[in-house]
Structure formats: C-alpha cells, structure tokens
Amino acid sequence: MAPEDFWAFSVKQVDTQYIQQVVKKSISNLPVGDILIQVQFSSLNYKDALSATGHYGVTKNYPHIPGIDAAGIVLEDTSGQFHPGDRVLVTGFDLGVNTWGGFAELIRVPAAWVLPLPAGLTPAESMILGTAGLTAALCVEALLQHAIQPASGAILVTGATGGVGSLAVALLAKLGFEVVAVTGKRDRHAYLTELGAARILSREQVNDTSDKPLLKGQWAGVVDTVGGNLLATAIRSTQYGGCVTACGLVGGVDLPLTVHPFILRGVRLIGIDSVNLPLAQRQQLWHRFATDWKLTNLEAIATTVTLTDLPVWIDRILKGQVVGRVLVHVAK
User: Fold this and answer.
1) Predicted pLDDT at 119
2) For the chain, N or C: smaller number of CB within 10 Å?
3) What is the value of pTM for the model shown?
4) How far apart are CA 128 and CA 299, in angstroms?
5) Exposure b/e, 178-197, CB count within 10 A at least 16 = b
6) Domains in the chain and their CATH numbers?
C-alpha cells in the first residue's frame, strides 16, 4: 500500500529567491500518471541544479521537485505494464523539469516513460549511469555506427571529468579505444587515467582561436560535452572520415567554423539528445550497460549523497567543482 505522504527535496519561489528544503509532501500532490514508484536512487545533473536555482529555461512553475533520473520499485500501475514490486527506472522526458522528479521518495509518471531495470544492474548502478550514461552511450553508439573502430585512431573526450565525459572515457576504454581526455582540472589526471584515458590534455591545448578553417587531423572521433570553440576546434582537428558527437553547451552555443571540415574531410557532426529518445532505443542501450558494456568501475566515478546534502552539491556542480557522478540515495 502506498504511503499517504513522503519526503522530498522541494524548491519554492519567494519573490526573487528560490528556497531549497527537504519537506514532507502529501501523495495527493503528485501529478496525474499511470505508475507510482517508490524511489530508491536518483542522481544530480547540471540540469537539476538549474531547476533548483530558478532557471526559467528549465522549470517554469514552483514549488517544484527536481531530479531528471529515478530508479525504484513500482507501487501501483494503472496501465497494466508493470506489477507492484517490479524494479524500474526513468530518465529524461519531462521528469524533474516541469513534472515533479526523482529527488523524492515517490514519483508518479506516465507508463511511456518507464523501463524495467535490467537484471544485470542494481538501482544504484543505474543511477550512477542515469541520463549522463545514456548520453555517453548514444555518443559511443554514434561513433560505432559511423564505422569508427579502435583501429581508426584516437578518440577525444572533452569535459572528461564531468558526468557524461567520465562515463564516455570509461566506456570507450572498455571497448578498446585510445582515449584522449581533456580537462581543466590538473589534480584529476590520476582519476582519468584510472578510468582508462591513454593521454590527458588541458583545455588550452585543444582550444584554437585562430581563423584557420582546418587544423592538423588528429582524432578519429570526438565526444564533445562542452560546445563552443572547443567543439569547433575538435571538428577542425578531426581526421578524414571522422565523426564528432556533440551533447553539451556549457562552453557556449556558438560554433565558429567553416564548412571545410565537412566538404574537404568528410567529417560527420552528430547531435546527441537523450531526453526524448524513444523508449525502444533506450531499452537497447540499458541492456548493453547490463551486459557487454557493463562498467566495473562505477564506484570510482560516483559520490553518494542524501536529499539533505543536495544544496551543497547543487552549488558545487554549478561552479564546475564536481567530478564524475553524484548518486542521490533517496530512500530513508
């Protein structure tokens, strides 16, 4: 039987301030949906931090519960898709954006958002991966689909100490690629080496500010989590027939380059979105994470926190001070 109330990390607006607090909510306050889930774990993403600090481009209505990822146990399902006790996960769609999200003991969501937890993953492992892992997997899948193999050459990963970057480094290394990781954190080289990076470069080394339309071709593929001029430099530095995946914009939304990399080197630029990815494709990638793409070093990537710890970690992720993934242990 579902409880009448639950604890949640809630954000309320008071004039121009956004107040974050762990409060008790009534189950009657949950949005309409097919499936009621008792959340065990979530994760902290940059998007969650924006939602928790009143970023109108992410969340428009408050009070609100952020959390774009959730893993837990089905309590009720009016769709007939699942049974009480089934382990499930939800990432993306509108969860934690304008629908109350995973930073709560209970969520209610449409059946179209919910996947069964693969047998080879624990709820905690699924949330260390979360949206970041799904995004990294889409990047790697795009490289493979465009005939980029370990023998093709080195793969550049920008923003390598972030959530998507860390998981991309680990996954690419597992698949046998030579990974060149980019970071501005000089004290995290050992961390990246442990994940499988063969070489580590500073941001300055891959941020060319000249107006050259092409640079020396160095990369068979790129996983870019930053955007802006770092992405433009990476594209201009990609070798003939290479593939660049783009999934971030913290470095800016402008892309200062010419068409030369595309028409003279045949470089492919692939945009990556995991938010509205069809459920069938999600399920395939989650299955791979539980089987042939299973990462055995997830604990090295994650820091575990509770709901009451979130304000500190939200501030840290906004300041670029978080390395790897932040796993949120929701269940009390």
Assistant:
1) 96
2) N
3) 0.95
4) 8
5) bbbbbbebeebeebbeebbb
6) 5-117+298-329 (3.90.180.10), 131-271 (3.40.50.720)
